[in-house]
């Protein structure tokens, strides 16, 4: 078994044993070294965003003191869900290795795959309002542009 | 202006003034009452996941002591990015009002929209490995099924 994936599995198994959340672990690696590792803590933290990948990415950012993890590789015990793909994209991680896929996690009643179906979310439940006011925020942000590096 | 959107805007403007991150605010409402509000804190927290929506949802979960925010409504100063859509889906929020759209935020160099283009992420950079081991995690999780409510 891949040595980094093995660490992700150990995290996942630890999380299960502690009843912290689902059977998911993640490891961030840079230049052959583990930068961070984490397991799913949704139940422990009562936080639907506390997926292993999210927790590992947040830890890696703190450790490397940057929000740009370009050059890092993510190992995940299962294929990252749509939310985690978004986090991976924002953190600029390109390389991802995963073990289980959505068919595997579906056996445990995780319904990530269905998220794709209504991902555009442009249905009856989403509505754009007050668009004319957004210029206020654009102007406020632009007036600080030289101070805010984002 | 919608009164809840106005609160989201105030959060966004506060965040800009403090240089905490982008011009984004979010409010979670239930039964006509504000449950939580937040602004983007990516720069403050050095955390690429600290979008207004994510912070507001995490706060609301803590406040209501649940990971299921079904029945809540989200107000966001701009259209939630793919990551935030995932968080919204996991938190089971259905109703979303937003002000600016991706065309507006693109003016500020936020590239959310491009995330959709490679969202499936099934390119050269993603690889499934060690799939045969995933049954280990399925079995470990299932053996705890009655203890872990997830």
TrEMBL record, chains A, B:
Annotated ranges, domain CMP/dCMP-type deaminase: 1-137
EC id: 3.5.4.33
Keyword Hydrolase: yes
InterPro entries noted in UniProt: APOBEC/CMP_deaminase_Zn-bd, CMP_dCMP_dom, Cytidine_deaminase-like
Any GO molecular function: tRNA-specific adenosine-34 deaminase activity
Gene3D superfamilies: Cytidine Deaminase, domain 2
UniProt keyword annotation of Cell division present: no
Name of a matching Pfam family: dCMP_cyt_deam_1
Record key words, sorted: Hydrolase, Metal-binding, Zinc
Superkingdom, taxonomy of origin: Archaea
BP GO terms, sorted: purine nucleoside catabolic process
Family assignment from sequence similarity: Belongs to the cytidine and deoxycytidylate deaminase family.
Record-given protein name: TadA1 protein
């Amino acid at each position: 078994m891949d040595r980094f994936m093995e660490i992700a599995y150990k995290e996942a198994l630890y999380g299960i044993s502690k009843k912290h959340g689902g059977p998911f672990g993640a490891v961030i690696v840079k230049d052959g070294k583990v930068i961070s590792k984490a397991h799913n803590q949704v139940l422990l933290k009562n936080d639907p965003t506390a997926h292993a990948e999210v927790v590992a990415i947040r830890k890696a950012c703190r450790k490397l003191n940057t929000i740009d993890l370009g050059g890092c590789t993510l190992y995940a015990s299962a294929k990252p869900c749509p939310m985690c793909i978004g986090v991976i994209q924002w953190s600029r991680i390109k390389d991802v290795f995963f073990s289980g896929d959505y068919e595997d996690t579906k056996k445990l009643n995780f319904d990530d795959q269905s998220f794709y179906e209504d991902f555009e979310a442009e249905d009856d439940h989403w509505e754009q309002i007050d668009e004319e006011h957004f210029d206020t925020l654009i102007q406020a942000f632009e007036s600080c542009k030289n101070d805010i590096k984002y």
